[in-house]
Amino acid sequence: MPTCGVVYVHSTPLAVCQHVEWAIARVLTAPVNLHWTVQQVDPSMRRAECSWTGRAGTGAELAAALRQWPMIRFEVTEEPSPGLDGERFMHVPGRGLFHGTMGASGDIQIGEDRLRAIMASARAPEALAHALEKALGTAWDAELEPYRYAGDGAPVTLLTRVG
């Protein structure tokens, strides 16, 4: 059963753009030619986004392929599909990769068992708040938000996984 998602490359050095396209092409087993624009937050960087269609798990494969360049900021989403939750991956230089389950509305979801573990290990209200912020990827969201806003209205490339 196919699913779909989006790859947002929020910022990458110009020299890495072609490598990003090759990485996405390897995962999708299809040629990729993204429309790169200047990232307004940092004009020395470029940004691009593409919608993709493929089998469940493609989002994780795309995130794994892109994280090999620690200097790029990116997000990969995969929509929920029958029997599977959606996923969001966020990468920020110096912070690494965040992975969260994503609901149909795009919100990060925290499962019951994880919530119980967080509540059991938190010794004070501040510790509980910190653990919940970490589980929600709040720090990644905060660092990516200016880059997301700068991409409003940018062109989107549509891609389909061949295999």
From TrEMBL:
Pfam families registered for this protein in UniProt: DUF3145 (PF11343)
InterPro entries registered for this protein in UniProt: DUF3145
Name under which the protein is recorded: DUF3145 domain-containing protein
